[in-house]
Amino acid sequence: MIKDLIHKTSSFLAISALSLGLGGVAHAQEAEMDSAVQMVRLFFADHSTRFIAGDEPLLNQANAAEKYLVDDLAIDGLQGQLGSDPVFCGQDAEIADLQIMPDPELPMLRGAAQVRVNFTNFGRPTSTLYTLVQWKPGEEWQISDIYCESDNW
């Protein structure tokens, strides 16, 4: 009887320790997602502020964009080369109903974070998916892709 009690207690403690360990992993992943979402929030805010003020687009200024984007995308004149604004999925914007959140379908994929941005642009529902990477664990997230799901580009 005491042997059974010791065995059950040991099993309970092992399962509890495993659960706590997995909980720690889930908590760390949640914190990583929070920082990726925050990076997209800052990027969207900076981009929008420039747009509203009539300033040079963020995506056209490599030195301003480099804190948000991977090196390959932080180039002068990027938005002009694209011919459209991938942040607003168009050439002009009147943004409302903005939501920025971890992608509910697949928030993490092979170490990359995926952040969903939903909004209306001139009343039209629009959805974009941002992919962010970290070159080294613990470093700032950088945007490596902005996909306009609404227009499939």
What does this structure look like?
Helices cover 40% and strands 24% of the residues. It has three helices and five strands; from the N terminus they run αααβββββ. A hairpin with a 2-residue loop joins strand 2 and strand 3. The longest helix has 52 residues, at 2-53. It is globular and about 40 Å long. The N and C termini lie far apart (67 Å).
SS element count, helices: 3
Sheet-strand content, in percent, reads: 15-25%
- What is the average of the pLDDT values? 83
Pick out the low-confidence regions. 1-22
Strand count: 5
**What is the ordering of alpha helices and beta strands?**
HHHEEEEE
**Share of helix, binned:** 25-40%
What characterizes the major β-sheet? Answer: 5 strands, antiparallel
Shape: globular
Calculate Rg over CA atoms.
21 Å
Cα(first) to Cα(last) distance is 67 Å
Give the structural class. Answer: alpha+beta
Give a brief outline of the structure.
Helix content is 40%, strand content 24%.
